[in-house]
Amino acid sequence: MKLKGSTILWTFIFCIFMGITVVSIGIGAAIPSINLIARPFVCPGGQMQNTSQVYTPSPIETVTTITWYCVDEKTGTQTELGVFPMVLYAGVIYGLLLFLLVLIGMEIFARRLASNLGSVRNPGGADMAEILDRLGLTEQFHNTSAGQDQQDLAKLLNNSGSALTRMKELKGLRDANLISEAEYEQKREEILKNL
Fold it and tell me: In b/e form, how buried is each residue of 36-55, taking b as 16+ CB within 10 angstroms?
């Protein structure tokens, strides 16, 4: 299964939005150090540092503010960083990482789904020609006239999966010498007639 272009585009937009809002702003408020990933963009050639200030504007309210600074490694001067550029850069980086993880997850899910659908259509991983051959129906399939009702043919192919399972069980019984060759042939004919 292939992923559609519109699915990928909307997934990309969603991941960038989540990277900015949830990771950079939301989690970044609780764990400020995760926004250090934006350093190469907002503080090139320096180190990012933050300071916290706690204010109590009223007896029931406490406010904590975090201020980020870019400290030049050569001179030691501090320049206050704007929160929004830092959050945007960090959020986009986290959004891209999230997008890659989601794409990998979607691809794994799509492959598993395709594999499961393939095993439903083709029991045991066998293709339809192999199933017909195992059931001894190859000749009947090739002798089907063009005018024959397609529903009969579809019914034959749909029933082949359960018939194949019964044939395998029957062969297992014969191989274990639990039934005679005559009983095996008789039951085999019954299974084929029920198709």
Answer: bbbbeebbeebebeeeeeee
The helix (run of H) or strand (run of E) holding residue 53 is strand 46-58
Provide the token pair at 28.
């970044």
Decide: 99 and 8 in contact? Cβ < 8 Å: no
Mean pLDDT, the chain, rounded, equals 80
Tens-digit pLDDT profile for residues 68-111: 999 988 888 999 998 889 999 999 999 999 999 999 998 888 78
Per-residue three-class SS string for 64-98: EEEEEEEEECCCCCEEECCHHHHHHHHHHHHHHHH
Q: Which of 34, 104, 118 is nearest to 68 (CA)?
A: 34
pLDDT, tens only, 127-169: 556 665 666 666 665 565 544 444 555 555 555 557 777 788 8
